[in-house]
Structures are given as C-alpha cells and as structure tokens.
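Quick one: sequence plus zinc ion SMILES, need structure tokens.
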Amino acid sequence: MPNVDRSSRPARVLFAGALAVASLSVPATVRAQSAALTMAYDSARCPSCAEWNAPQAPLRLFANTYYVGTHGLTALLITSPEGHILIDGGLPNSAPLILKNIAALGFNARDIKIILNSHAHYDHAGGIAALQEVSGARVIASAASAPVIARGLPDHDDPQHGIAFPMPPVRNVDVLAAGEVVRLGPLSFTLHATGGHTPGGSTWTWRACEGARCLDFVYADSQSPISEDGFRFSDNTRYPTALADFERGHALLERISCDILITPHPAASSLWERARAAPEGFVDRDACKRYAAAARRALRARLERERIHDR
Ligand SMILES: [Zn+2]
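Reply:
Sure thing.
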C-alpha cells in the first residue's frame, strides 16, 4: 500500500499528564519525548494497560530464544555471538521492564542490533523508541508499519485509528518487504504479511537450534478484528483489503511449519499455561492451525454482527 505522508494531520489529544517512564536505563531524551506527547496510559483511557504491563520474570523458550516482555505483552530476545534481535517493545513504559529482563538473563541491551515489530500499535511498538535509544539498534518493519512507527501516530487506514494511542516516534525505521529475510550473523528472520488487524501486520518466523534439534518459531501477529465504532471490515474505503489480508494471514498460519507459536499478547496462545510444562510445553505443532481457526471464527462472528446490525 502507498505510504502516504499524513504528518500534517492533527494528532488526537488522547492523553493528559506525563508518561511515567521512570528508569535510569531510559535516557532523559526519551523520557522528555514521552512527556512532550503528554501521554498517560492511565486506567481511565487504557483499562488494560496496567495489567498488560505487570512485571514478568524472563524465560528461555528454546535454544537462543527468550521471552523478555511483561506479563501481558510479548517481547522476544533472540541472541547470537554477533548480536541480538529484539521483537516488539510493549508499551512506552514497558521498556524499563524489558531492559531489566534482558539484564537478568545476563545479556547486554547494547548488543541488540535489530528491533522488529509485529504491528504498529502502542502496546507493541510503544516501547521501541526507548529500546532503540538504549541499544542503538536498527528498527525494521513492514512497508505499511514503518511510517506509523516513525511518526508515532495511528495509521489513518488502521481499523482502530480513532481509538489507538500515539506513541514515541522512532528514528530511522527501515522497511522490509513481505517474504524478505533479515539476517544478523547466524540469525535469519522472515517477514510474512498478515494484516487485517492493522494494514502492516507482520508475522515473523525463524529457526532455533540446540545441538542437533531445530525448532521453527512462529511469532504470529494479532488476528483480532477490532475497530473503532463505525468501521466495517466488510465494507469500507479506508482499508478495503482488510478481509483479503486476514484471509492471507489465516491461510499462511494453516500451512506454515510451526513448532512453537508465540503471539504479541501471550494469553492469545496460552503461553502461561504452556509454561507450566516448559520446556516441552512450548512445543505444539498444531498451535498455529488452532490460532488460525480461532481467528477465522472471530472474523466470521464479526462479519455476522456487521451484517445484522448494519454498522
Ligand atoms: Zn493491536
């Protein structure tokens, strides 16, 4: 889709007060930038944010792949001797928790060379600016997500445009086309276009090996058909390919090699239930198919509601 510059659009004033990003690990420039946005993910505006941002001890999923996110928002660290890759940054005020988790595992955030993103919403990309500031990492996203992350303002085409919060803008966001691969030393990550939830929604896949055993990770993007009031997935001019994008994502998740499924909201793929049987509990070769089936059901239900209520 075209990356139309809409920077002249006025930002919706959604916040009052300053965002608390209180950590010595987060540079003053980032704190000031966050405060300048007068963003406060407070309980009135974001009832789920506090729960999403609850602290979570980091855990090793398999081989070089670690969960370093908060309890409700995934961030993944994939390590190598030639530098690390981080996927997603949670909320702006998740960054200190993510940095603490990385340090607790014995890794140095300055070794993060690349930061990737699932989709350009404040709860998955909001912390990227702070994490980039600390690490100096390149940020890489899909063609539709990159300008949203760079501006820090919700995408006009996003079904949640009117209800998504702004986030600290990120410098130098590079674009990766769907199907292309990001490499860092021995690491390689493939971007798959799985939009619908947002126009630029991305699923990332990589292989992790421990000795002779290799497993295929799938970080499958959110598939929920959520929108602001008045938006219809079945019929709209703002994001007319939404249904086709959902279909492409569901079909991909049904056929892809998937040993370990992780999702931006860990609860969406029962991560904490699986963690009780870790490490083998993380491995479930049918998880992506079930995730796709649940997404198809949710979309069918949404379209049925749109048909009945004509909204
Ligand atoms: Zn989202």
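Residues 28-46+57-309 form a domain with the Metallo-beta-lactamase; Chain A fold (CATH 3.60.15.10). The pocket of zinc ion is lined by residues 119, 121, 197, 222 (CB under 6 Å).
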